[in-house]
Amino acid sequence: MKKTGNTKSSIVSAAWELFYRQGYDNTTIDDIVEASNTSKGSFYHYFSGKEGLLNTLSILFDDKYLKLEPELEKIEGAVEKLLFLNHELFYMIENTVSLDLLGRLLSSQLISRSDRSLLDTNREYYKLLRKIAIEGKDEGVFRADLSANDIVKAYAVIERALLYDWCICSGDYSLCSYAGQVMPTLLAGFCSQ
Question: Is residue 12 domain-resident?
Fold first, then answer.
């Protein structure tokens, strides 16, 4: 039996994998329930329908960050950790999230007044970024005039901007490769001289 806290995550992970492989319109709730090894009751406990899953991509991102956290311990330096996280997340997005659904998520965040999951500072994403920013501040890597929160906000804005650009360009370039080229330069602006 799955723990209750993992049930929602299992449903979300299965749904997004199916959305990527089969497309959103071709994926049924029955498909999601079967792939997540849960029940319809569990599905409807968390979601009113398939549309309710559109704003859950941030959960999938946070699950990825939780899986990467042990690997961060092996990486020296706050900037290197941020570059690693960005690469791993963008690689996952580029290879497992359909451009259409990513675009739907980003547009839903623009029009929604209530569920702005990408801005929820209680997400694992923000907790991990804050931890790295504080580490970089303590080590003197990041500028003294920037708070850890300033660094986290700017980093998140940069990632969202790159995702947005990739979507409006219809994914006509590699998100992961492009971010690998520009992120070091952008992050250098946070660093002490």
Answer: yes
Instruction: Give CA separation, 181 vs 63, 67, 148, in Å.
Output: 25, 25, 24
Task: With beta carbons less than 8 A apart as the criterion, state whether 190 and 151 touch.
Answer: yes
Residue among 114, 113, 92, 111 at smallest CA distance from 163: 92
Report yes or no on 16 lying in a domain: yes
Q: Is 193 within the bounds of a domain?
A: no
pLDDT tens over the chain, length 193 residues: 344 558 888 898 898 888 888 888 899 999 999 999 999 999 999 988 887 787 777 777 888 888 899 999 999 999 999 999 999 999 988 988 888 878 877 776 666 555 556 667 778 889 999 999 999 999 999 999 999 999 999 999 999 899 999 999 999 999 999 999 999 999 999 999 7
Structure tokens at 23: 């497309």
pTM of the model: 0.80
Q: Quickly tell me which residue has 């971010």 as its tokens.
A: 179
76 and 110 both lie in a single domain: yes
Do 3 and 64 lie in a common domain?
A: no
Range of the domain at 25: 1-48
184 and 134 in a common domain: yes
